[in-house]
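Page 42, continued from yesterday. The earlier attempt failed because a stray header line got pasted into the input along with the sequence. Redoing it now with the clean sequence only.
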Amino acid sequence: MLELAGVETFYGSIQVIKGIRLRVPENTIVSIVGSNGAGKTTLLRTICGIIKPVRGKIEFLGKEIQGLAPDRIVRAGISMIAEGRELFSDMSVMENLELGGYLKKKADVTKALEKVFSLFPILEKYLSRMAGMLSGGQQQMLAIAMALMVRPKLLLLDEPSLGLAPLVKQEIFNEIVYLNKQEGIDILLVEQNVHMALSISEYGYVLDMGKITIEGNSDFLLGNDSVRKSYLGE
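This time it went through. Structure tokens are written below.
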């Protein structure tokens, strides 16, 4: 589905991503975990075209996408949900959803709306409410729904549990698993809650100072002494 080979990204003269090699096979959830400042968000922004890599190759469905404009990457089938949700807070839920589907034809938008309302029925109840007036969990649902409006094949999620209560976090993670297992959307998940992320993913990468330091299936990482000490507080 997605493959990165030797990807390097800079902010000015500062190198943030250092020779990343990473794969997201079809029909999987893959997690990237690590501490603040490790480069996780920068890596997602590089994949979706917001930041251009200086070196390396990014392939999606067998075609190179590094250097493409973000809208072309969205059209190819990749959607990203940014950290902090980044909704249009002074616009209604419906207006946010319509903006999420701006690349699609009207008939496709109608179908997409039916799908997101089946996944998140609370959003249909609050269509006229300003997005900024929703609860944190409802805002995260809206952010996911906006990304789903273009019917993506791959969903990039940046810290979806940030600032949410424990029960709401679990609900969001349940929805992520549903999207992968029932809707066939592959997931690349960036998350500081290491245990929760690895518990729903098949494979994981530990990112530290812009480099992949450990990788493996999720059970291996959950049992790895270094991961347990550094990220699970054991």
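Notes: The beta strands are 2-11, 14-24, 29-33, 55-60, 63-64, 78-81, 154-158, 186-190, 203-208, 211-217.
Reminder to self: strip header lines before submitting.
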